[in-house]
């Protein structure tokens, strides 16, 4: 079956309403396009759990700072549609900016707590943009469930908080990070990396894994976290925004892994590219 593209709300709603009348369960996978195997794994997961899968493709301007890569963010609609067709998605939701943000729009969704610190430290408006566009997508599609990647772990927790607090009837399903054979987390931004940077990039996962196993026995976190930062710089990263040990559910800073599920998260810069990754600490 060819994947259909909806570009206005009326066509999206008509298609979804038809599925609802037929008693079908609907899954949503929000994306910004430039799809890769990580996104497609989320689509397959949605199709395991639901009868129909809607994939949104929208490069959301409000989650980019003026200094970030909105203009050069990779866009490849026809390539994306071909991949979605192969993965078995039924509908691509591709709204224009004016459809997502009607002129005169003045409503924003701000999540506190889990949306503070880490990514928000260097990208203060990022989660307001993500939470707002996700709230809109949930309202537009009315899916039973939506699949999000653990790759963007803080985003996943922000979205969970959002649907809980606003009583949005879409279940949030997490999917583990899909990696390249050398461990690099797949990302649309990896295509910015030149061959030397691409080689360095793989060490982010290696360092996170090694540090997580050091932290798993409950030792004070600071020395391994400081060592991880040094190892990333030594491996060729230009700057390290954070390497942090956090509670896996509420992202509270931890001074040591204390037997409760914990997560080790990092963001580091390689030339003009910023990479993020995270791993579980102990049995999470
Ligand atoms: P995007 O970066 O396109 O990612 C879309 C979804 O794919 C997110 O849930 C992300 O966590 C997941 N994903 C990306 N790379 C992955 C990987 N290697 N393994 C598993 N999942 C992966 O995240 C966004 O878009 C946007 O912020 C969005 C939620 C669409 C709001 O604009």
Describe the structure.
- The model has no long low-confidence stretch (mean pLDDT 97).
- The longest helix has 16 residues, at 126-141.
- The chain has 2 domains: 4-175, HUPs (Rossmann fold, 3-Layer(aba) Sandwich), CATH 3.40.50; 188-281, Pantoate-beta-alanine ligase, C-terminal domain (Pantoate--beta-alanine Ligase, Chain: A,domain 2), CATH 3.30.1300.10.
- It has helices spanning 9-21, 37-49, 77-87, 97-100, 119-122, 126-141, 153-165, 195-201, 203-215, 222-235; strands at 4-6, 26-31, 52-57, 91-93, 145-149, 171-175, 239-247, 262-270, 273-281.
- With 284 residues, it is α/β, with parallel strands linked by helices.
- α6 crosses α7 (153-165) and α9 packs antiparallel against α10 (222-235).
- The strands form 2 sheets. Strands 1-4-3-2-5-6 form a 6-stranded parallel sheet, sandwiched between helices. A 3-stranded antiparallel sheet has the order 7-8-9.
- The structure holds pantoyl adenylate.
- Residues 30-32, 38-39, 41-42, 60, 63, 130, 133-134, 148-149, 151-152, 155, 175, 177-178, 185-188 line the site of pantoyl adenylate.
